[in-house]
Predict the structure.
Amino acid sequence: MHRYRTHTCGALRDSDIGQEVRLSGWCHRIRDHGGVLFIDLRDHYGLTQVVADPDSPAFKVAETLRSEWVVRVDGKVRRRPGGTENPELPTGAVEVYIRDVEVLGPAAELPMPVFGEQEYPEETRLKYRFLDLRREHLHHNIMKRGQVIDSIRRRMKEQGFFEFQTPILTASSPEGARDYLVPSRIHPGKFYALPQAPQQFKQLIMVAGFDRYFQIAPCFRDEDARADRSPGEFYQLDLEMSFVTQDDVFAAVEPVMRGVFEEFSGGKPVTKVFPRIPYAEALAKYGTDKPDLRNPIVMADVSDIFRGSGFKIFAGILDKNPTAAVWAIPAPGGGSRAFCDRMNSWAQGEGQPGLGYIFWALDNGAVIGRGPIANNLGAERTEKLRAQLKLKDGDAVFFVAGEPSSFVKFAGPARTKVGEELKLIDKGRFELCWIVDFPMYEWNEEDKKIDFSHNPFSMPNLPVAEFLALDAADHKKILSLKAIQYDVVCNGVELSSGAIRNHRPDVMKKAFAIAGYDESTLEQKFGGMLHALSLGAPPHGGIAPGIDRIVMLLCGEENLREVVLFPMNQRAEDLMMGAPAEATPKQLRELHIRVVKPE
């Protein structure tokens, strides 16, 4: 017989009744029923109930066992007495009558229990993460993470991608987030950087003549934590393709993403064909470039209804500023003064002066608009508004007004809040989409100059000859220019940004010149990449969906720490291992470093 087990704790079935078996695991739960001990023995694979009574030769040892002790038990498999079966467990029809117990690893008093799913302070959970990971829910999440990654790998290889590994010790990147620096012992005063992403390497792989690359890539960024981004490090499905258009990238990525979500959705519907939503349209309809399409609310520009109207506040805003607008946020089923007042109070809590509204109710058989705005707007315009938005008795609408580039940051959350409060969001599905046609440039009001809007290394969506002929002083044309950039979004969570890369040095120099960078600055910061592109680079593009975010969505979690094995806290500290830690004087001498702490 094996030293520790003949079966796992999830393996025994009716067919094993009568067998002598050996199990090893943790004492998950111990129950004393009138002198008979019932122990749920747990390992990675499941739970098995083991039993000892005073007639068992192992009873005296079994009485000493405590929660989370690691033990080996020998005994005979028998059927559970009638009425005590547990249909929730695969092993729930049988139990093991113990004849021998060996304590393999006693446990001291636990700082947090493993049995049950009680809420515990994050600090405790992270400090004792190895205990937290024993809990069923978190253990399940981590196993699902591994299964998701296996599925992604398989699907990528089926699409003709090859997996390569790029360096971890590299050069500091001059753009993006802060780098993590690693001092070099053999090159005093010089530092490596951990990669924020394998961006330059994956482009160089294309320049080197490989056609389809991917890896499950670790990325390191010294930035503050967010619920949808782990501090310090995270993983992404990094991929790049040569000789491709945006459509080719979508055609390769969509089946992988859709397939993974369908495989692990638990039966929830998944978008069949990802809609492509232009960036400007996403802002106008949803108030964000990360729209949650499960929310049916679509905002609308209703400026024409308020222009020159009796509602002087909005009419005045539109009259004074030719680029101002009034947007409507429909609220189906929100037609009560109580709900409208509640939304108004919420808006004030968000730092807004309020949230104007109209709601509709029946009056002598007619649907009449109610509220101060309706009273000043007049019946005819109010009815025109209702018709445009297809609202009915019992519905409402909220308004935001001013410069859209300013109020959009509030309009999006307001749309989400209305959808949540009225329970309009269908939580039982996964809605994916592409956001496309991002602006190449934007106007920097503070510095009074043209700036890059998003990724400066994307190809402009314009024929090369036309782009090179652009007049940098023609701000109107420059600001209307789109880049071949795209995001993939699921349920309001941005999974990734991507682009067709700017592979032409002449186009790159022109693009940076428009944004006010001279050629020497470009050479200084990106000389290596520029030189590589000048030696024969294919058109190429890619994307890098976040693994952590994908798993978070598939596990139904709202925080990445629930799907990462050993996460840091919000301050980028590993409470379990004590990182970051101070270096010893000897280590600092070897690295030729002196620490200067802030005063």
Observations:
- The chain has a mean pLDDT of 95.
- The longest helix spans residues 136-158.
- The two ends are 65 Å apart (CA to CA).
- The CA atoms of residues 8 and 23 lie 6 Å apart.
